[in-house]
User: Which sequence fits this backbone?
């Protein structure tokens, strides 16, 4: 489903012609009717604004999750990256992103260039405010960038990361986004990604994976003897806070992706999405804590947190059509994915500091592929084409950028700098100057 | 007041019969009228969704409050418990909770068994979306479970706690809830608990008290010489953050318990509830800081935070009818309750780690009993019956479960495990691996 | 623009007279029309409530920002101050503040004394609920007090601070606020401050500056050799969290200052405000990180955070009229202000612990003075008069109060107490009892 042309007047209502003020004789009826349309406009706009600020809040969730899951010597860096990437996403999605994604795509591979025009409120007509739509779409773009930040933590220099962020949010994300939500070729083909399991989460995951492969693992993470050296995060309560923020924000992420709230049916759909979204997250938690208890005899809190997130990512491709039982199943598999893919990545020596690849990439693929189970308009074949096409495009274009950055300004600090911690080297302000500065002994 | 059948068309409007589409001739009027009803439906649904996500956010508040008030060796455990209990509450309130609480109670002692049916959006009729109502009621159920978590911190094994949570959220909470909000016998008798001073807060408090008595105090908390050994929490800023989150969430908790926003009167009621809720919390803070200054020559920050929460709990039974002066008084007494009951519990050697019993149980009783002061439909006698009946039921049924768990899988770690901290023993991941691991010397 | 009498029916609609129920014959039309007006009322009220809870949440943002930017020995104190000041602001703005600011000002210098009457919901008529308006205006008042808290951290006793807060929120803020938002003399003159760059942020900044001058710098901050001794904050992730909370809350701060959402034009205006607010913050971040990189060869995270906030303050005087490019420019200059004014204050030996003076006072003046660039109704001359008049009044009246407090109960702890940290001396509970207590070596 595209995210552009959803709104249309119910034909029956439009046919009555009551919404056009044609003569003084109709003035009284029209006054009432206009308010009727006003209410719809305001409701739709309000949905974008509320959903938008909830998704904006997810930027803080990623910041806290990552601050909690990196070692204390890299926490200031991680915080700086997260607030900066949100700033960059806002600027780039205005300069090129929105129009590339939504302007004149029409079955094609991208829209047009140039900044998004923010209309004068007096002329901001339609079924919702164009500015509210821009704001809502922008925070989705920022989410994609947030995903990359966690995987590459503790060993990337800040400026190349920020340059990559600018290119991701200004070009890569909007181009692949145009294929579906901008009514591009994937949308015409029948691909279905309601709120972005693929367009946001997998896309971010592919960009992160490309970076992780090109950047390499943190020094000491994978021993020469094949042992994986654990590097525990500095603050579990901050990681928990981040997860709760993301869970909260996801009600906006999925719920407001209904894109309208001005009818009974739309409001009921938003409500059902809230329920399914919550159920998938809950199932993700339960599967993750049960599996880690069974496998390791202890509950792993980072798996519990990532289990919630993977449940959320899994339901994001189709949060509306599944029954509650389906939502629980979809989210629960997401939780299992985290438990099994995290150690698998370590076996492959892909160093994903916060687990973003299992959560966003793998669970995102799972969520997208399972859409046909509940939505008969979707087909496994087309879903696979979408997953593969977007994966290939994002992975390939991201790799080129990472390689270009590596070849020019360099993307990785020296080994000595990495040992010291990026806070000391690039930020100059420690996260916790009065507490231990140890970090794990490497 | 029950929470089921609040909505009815104003008689005058209903009598006009304009909201039913009976003939083509009425199509134009009906189109306008339908939108009118749509707006009401959307407003009511939106109130549930906004209120719902604010109360969902309270789960994060409890997590942060408790993470801040336990020693660092038990912080990962407390975080794990809080995210898991929110997951369990969502699942259990769907599997049995909602229907037990709301389906066919009609003056009785419980509803029916079986999962809540989430309607298809196209058929989700009424004055609000059924899914939005489910979501809103579910987060209240989760709040009850959150209350238990804090009291029992630092000395309970996680799985028995989670099993108890499942039984609390799937059975105990909904059964007692059905008595009032499900139009059960207490509602018929005239009991009044607007947003849950008794049904949520005291209920959670009684379950916590039963657990605390059966579990016993933390090792070393109460010396043999009668001295109380202070065990200060690990992070005051996290406890403060948790309190602010709860304060914020409470606007949804009390405000959206108006259950409707589609009329001027309802919207004005929600607004007045916001004001009274804030005033009660403010008074709770001021009384707590003033009393601790006078009694101890210093302000006790944990009392300030719990004072805010006790003010909030106190006003929850009736946030609409009190004048501002009454709200200040009601909340202020809540703040005083905290200051006096916390040391009292210590005298009784009841080890309530975060102060949840004074805040939720005692202030919850206070708030319920003072309802008749501002609401002439309530009587002290019936309020007392409700408080006693729900207290007896929750305390008794919780005690049976705690005793059964104690007798079977056991609820308490060994003394050695408790000394080590539950993070090391049951979670395997320390909360702050790079900082001190000391904890208070016991 | 004042914040009182914004609402009026579009003349055309009012002229139709359809909104008054005058005879039984009009009952059917009236039923529909009333709902129409109801929707407007509910939308406006909802805007106040949503905006209000977002701005309330900013109190948590200030608490976290300040908790992160002070040394660990003063964190409990800072948390206590922040929750207490929010409580006091609520009480004082009810007892005297609201009426002083909004009741019968009419071109004058203040309103009337006495508590704000909270109407019975059944009689809460108009275009929005009076209670929702009170709530929204109250949280602005609280914001002003939050600003003062940060500047004066680490060296002020709590009770004089709280007494000052009571006088600021009950008298100083409302009196100067009445000049503009209460339709006082500045409003009549044509002063323009949409959401409070001057009325909230500069006002808070002036009060903070007066306090900082009278209180003096922290011991050891400015060495006898002229060197500035850095005293790094205890937790960058908490400071980052606080900044994200403030950024989120600012959508309510600026967006809901449109004061109405019940028409297409108002909803579109709120949306445009969201966009501009975000853009200004984004620009503030980018300018701050770029400038600190260029000047110091490292990104300074505290500058990045304060850059976001300065961008937000800068756009607050006029978030509606600027184009996106203008918003970026306005916010970007805000970011530059932070980078240049922070060291300037140190040169002047004005010890502003969290940077509130550059962020709120200087960027607030900048934002106010640049209004005429995008809003042709404003003039530089009148803007300057407003900035000067409010600055003089707040600085002068604050100074008198600080001096009176200094002369009576004293405002500063002893040097020994300051070295120990205020948590030990006045709160009695350390923020992080299990971690290092060092603080910077002074």
Assistant:
């Amino acid at each position: 489903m595209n995210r552009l042309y959803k709104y249309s007047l119910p034909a029956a209502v439009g046919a009555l012609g009551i919404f056009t003020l044609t003569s003084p004789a109709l003035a009284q009826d029209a006054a009432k009717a206009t308010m009727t349309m006003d209410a719809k406009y305001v409701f739709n706009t309000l949905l974008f604004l509320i959903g938008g600020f909830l998704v904006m809040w997810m930027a803080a969730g990623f910041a806290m999750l990552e601050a909690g899951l990196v070692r204390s010597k890299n926490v200031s860096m991680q915080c700086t990256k997260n607030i900066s990437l949100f700033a960059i996403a806002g600027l780039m999605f205005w300069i090129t992103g929105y129009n590339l994604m939504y302007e004149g795509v029409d079955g094609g591979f991208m829209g047009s260039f140039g900044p998004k025009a923010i209309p004068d409120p007096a002329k901001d007509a339609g079924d919702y405010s164009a500015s509210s739509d821009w704001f809502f779409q922008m925070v989705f773009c920022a989410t994609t960038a947030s995903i990359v930040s966690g995987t590459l933590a503790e060993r990337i220099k800040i400026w190349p990361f920020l340059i990559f962020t600018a290119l991701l949010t200004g070009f890569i994300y909007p181009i692949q986004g145009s294929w579906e939500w901008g009514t591009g070729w994937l949308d015409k083909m029948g691909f279905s990604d309601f709120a972005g399991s693929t367009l946001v989460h997998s896309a971010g995951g592919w960009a992160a994976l490309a970076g992780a492969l090109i950047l390499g693992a943190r020094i000491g993470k994978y021993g020469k003897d094949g042992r994986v050296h654990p590097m525990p995060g500095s603050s579990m309560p901050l990681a928990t806070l981040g997860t709760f923020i993301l869970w909260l924000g996801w009600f906006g992420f999925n719920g407001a992706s209904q894109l309208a709230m001005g009818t009974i049916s739309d409001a009921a759909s938003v409500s059902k999405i809230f329920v399914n979204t919550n159920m998938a997250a809950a199932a993700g938690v339960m599967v993750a804590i049960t599996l880690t208890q069974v496998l390791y005899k202890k509950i792993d809190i980072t798996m519990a947190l990532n289990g919630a997130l993977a449940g959320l990512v899994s339901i994001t491709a189709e949060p509306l059509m599944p029954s509650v039982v389906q939502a629980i199943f979809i989210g629960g598999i997401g939780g299992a994915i985290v438990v099994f893919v995290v150690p698998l990545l370590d076996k492959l020596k892909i160093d994903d500091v916060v687990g973003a690849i299992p959560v966003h990439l793998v669970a995102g693929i799972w969520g997208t592929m399972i859409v046909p189970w509940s939505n008969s308009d979707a087909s496994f074949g087309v879903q696979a084409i979408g997953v593969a096409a977007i994966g290939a495009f994002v992975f390939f274009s991201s790799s080129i950028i990472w390689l270009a950055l590596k070849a020019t300004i360099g993307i990785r600090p020296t080994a000595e700098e990495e040992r010291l911690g990026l806070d000391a080297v690039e930020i100059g302000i420690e996260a916790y100057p009065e507490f231990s500065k140890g970090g794990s002994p490497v």
User: Anything to note?
Assistant: Residues 32-435 of chain A form a domain with the Ammonium transporter fold fold (CATH 1.10.3430.10). Chain A touches chain C through 69 residues (CB under 8 Å).
